[in-house]
């Protein structure tokens, strides 16, 4: 199972972040920036042989993961990125921090 995550909190990911801080089995590492978190998760995966897990909020938080995701993909490093998203009813309305992150990373 997952032992370590690199999670930078934000409004759209706060609930999962708070749950992780209460976990006694998952180590939650707080990076100073989402990009630091994704590259730390990649380094963790490379050194441990386990998938790296990173978490960010929606919008700019999610797009800050893209460089690290591309690097991991091109080097075949196992990495899982979890991001927040605006409410379903808000998608397509140019809501605050709405970004089509699935399409951006496809």
From TrEMBL:
Keywords: Lyase. Belongs to the TPP enzyme family. One of its GO terms (molecular function) is flavin adenine dinucleotide binding. Its EC number is 4.1.3.18. CDD domains: TPP_PYR_POX_like (cd07035). Residues 1-98 form the Thiamine pyrophosphate enzyme N-terminal TPP-binding domain. SUPFAM superfamilies: Thiamin diphosphate-binding fold (THDP-binding). This is Acetolactate synthase. GO terms for cellular component: acetolactate synthase complex. InterPro entries: THDP-binding, Thiamin_PyroP_enz_TPP-bd_dom, TPP_enz. Pfam families: TPP_enzyme_N. It comes from the Eukaryota. GO terms for biological process: isoleucine biosynthetic process; L-valine biosynthetic process. Gene3D superfamilies: 3.40.50.970.
